[in-house]
Design a protein that fits this description.
Layout: H1 51-54, E1 61-62, E2 76-83, E3 93-101, E4 111-116, H2 125-129, H3 137-142, E5 143-148, H4 176-197, H5 206-220, E6 225-230, H6 232-243, E7 248-254, H7 263-287, H8 297-313, E8 316-317, E9 323-324, H9 326-336, H10 343-354, H11 359-369, H12 379-399, H13 407-420, H14 425-429, H15 433-436, E10 457-464, H16 470-479, E11 483-491, H17 503-515, E12 524-525
Parallel strand pairs: 4-5, 4-6, 6-7, 7-10, 10-11, 11-12
Antiparallel strand pairs: 1-2, 2-3, 3-5, 8-9
């Protein structure tokens, strides 16, 4: 019985007082590629970028099936070349796959609006080309929407891991010998990634992606970067603000990641977020009068915790013969409680598991992965999901230090997490195994970002975001010199231009993108 792995953003963000400022951004041809802006008069040591990168011309053509089999009307695709290593820009290069849907109101076009869906490891070229992400109506009319696949991801020179990457083990080790065996396997997988992927694997960090964004801005002819980043895309956006505060145009950071939190801090916050989601799930059952798992929220949580302890001693078996353990339960809960539409099926599965039947979780997995009569993933979508799972450690392990560095330290960390949360602690702790054994040392810094001198940016968050909690957005709001925070009530991840649209949210974000007017500091949108 496979464990569904949750996509966990494991690194960080920043923000403070809001100001209303109109920033006029027009497409300008021949804009020079930027070096990182000087900070307090200190010059950067990064070599100047050769002129040919800024002088590229994108050859826009119709988007082919390699990007999307179902391109939106007017969608165009092309390539932009960037250096693999910005410290050695005359060395190897990588081609970034980009897509564009031209502004509907071309006569009043404001420039390009670049989009990144996060992950890390998700590509944005297909999302724009097929219309999966279209921004709000006003922004769509005034901007060319531009998607891009970050370096090493999707169409941009994919990294390769012949044996896959280490993930949280199905049965987390409890002893040093078990941990050493898990460590050895993870190390072997990571070394295979390094051998197969080439030079780009050492330069998958978000600082490099932020520098790629500036090349894209230049090639597209924009004086300022207009950008919408979701989830880990907000981390990339903040790295751009840190490097190029003077080039920040209108920037929307939606589902915010906090750059001042290291990997362990974020993992602990993920544990708390999962526990909070479980409490909401339990309270929802009580409110609806469903007492199959217990009469009170506290009783429900106690019974599920006891179920986990029992499964640690006596695993169940699914119809496929695989064990259903406490770790399996944690993985399913961590995935299912993030989506309220899964709660009905989750309850059925938990009731069955309490009676000794794990088969209902197989049906739940089929529902969550679209394999039970719903819309199945296309081969391209399956490949994209696999690429995300490979790319995630390649980015995270460079961006954030502090993963446990030995089998014993991993065990001690997992024990400490389990004391915090019997249901989720050990599961989330062992998600750090890939970075614990990654063959390339981290290069990122864990620190708040002020972005002094940058134009005001807009932060957006749900009140109950199961992946990037509202606490992140509030922390970033305090850290940044110039930002506004818009809160949408409810549960979800990515509140702007969402599948479940909010007129209030979309109108406020579009007003900022088109007119430069930020919502006031107390802004929120109703459920």
């Amino acid at each position: 019985m496979p464990i569904p792995r949750k996509s966990i953003p494991l690194t960080a963000g920043a923000a403070l007082a809001a100001a209303t400022l109109v920033v006029t951004v027009c497409g300008v041809g021949g804009v020079a590629a930027s070096q990182p802006d000087d900070v307090k008069g200190m010059k950067t040591s990064v070599p100047a970028l050769p002129a040919h990168f800024a002088q590229q011309k994108v050859q826009w053509t119709a988007c082919g099936a390699d990007v999307t089999p179902d391109a939106a009307p007017g969608a165009q695709c092309g390539w932009v070349k960037v250096p693999v290593d910005y410290a050695a820009p005359n060395g190897e290069t990588v081609k970034l796959r980009v897509s564009r849907v031209p502004a509907k109101d071309h006569g009043r076009r404001l420039g390009s609006l670049l989009f990144n869906p996060g992950g890390p490891g998700a590509g944005g070229a297909a999302d724009v080309a097929n219309g999966n992400w279209q921004a709000g109506g006003q922004a769509r009319a005034r901007y060319d929407l531009v998607g891009f696949d970050p370096r090493g991801i999707a169409g941009s020179g994919q990294i390769k891991c012949p044996d896959g990457v280490a993930q949280g083990p199905e049965n987390p080790p409890r002893t040093v010998p078990e941990a050493e065996k898990t460590y050895a396997d993870a190390t072997r997988r990571a070394q295979a990634c390094r051998k197969a992927s080439g030079a780009v694997l050492a330069h998958m960090d978000s600082v490099s992606v932020a520098r790629d964004l500036d090349v894209l801005r230049t090639v597209l002819g924009d004086a300022k970067l207009n950008y919408t980043g979701v989830s880990y895309g907000t981390f990339i956006g903040q790295q751009y603000m840190k490097l190029f505060p003077g080039k920040v145009g209108r920037m929307v950071l939606d589902g915010v990641v906090n750059p001042a939190a290291d990997m362990r801090q974020v993992a602990r916050l993920d544990v708390k977020t999962a526990d909070d989601a479980m409490r909401r799930y339990a309270q929802d059952l009580v409110t609806r009068g469903d007492d199959r798992l217990g009469a009170t929220a506290g009783e429900i949580l106690r019974r599920l915790t006891e179920l986990g302890r029992k499964l640690e001693r006596e695993p169940l078996r699914g119809t496929d013969g695989e064990e259903f353990t406490d770790a399996t339960l944690s993985a399913y809960l961590a995935t299912a409680v993030t989506a309220k539409e899964s709660w009905k099926d989750l309850t059925k599965a938990l009731v069955a598991a309490l009676k000794g039947d794990a088969a209902a979780f197989e049906r739940l997995e089929a529902e969550m992965t679209g394999e039970s009569g719903g819309q199945k993933l296309t081969p391209q979508e399956e490949q994209a999901e696999e690429n995300v799972s490979l790319s995630m450690p390649a980015v995270l392990c460079l961006d954030s230090p502090s993963a446990p560095k030995s089998p014993k330290e991993m065990l001690d960390t997992a024990d400490a997490f389990a004391r915090q949360s019997p249901l989720f602690g050990r599961y989330y702790a062992w998600q750090m195994i890939d970075c614990s054994t990654w063959p390339i040392a981290p290069t990122g810094a864990v620190e708040p970002i002020k972005a002094s001198g940058a134009a005001p940016v807009l932060l957006v968050s749900y009140t109950d975001d199961p992946l990037t909690p509202l606490a992140n957005a509030r922390a970033v709001h305090r850290q940044l010199d110039n930002s506004s925070l818009l809160v949408r009530k409810g549960q979800g991840h990515g509140a702007y231009a969402a599948e479940d649209p909010s007129t209030c949210t979309d109108r406020a974000v579009d007003t900022y993108l088109v007119e430069g007017r930020l919502p006031d500091q107390a802004a929120d949108c109703p459920r």
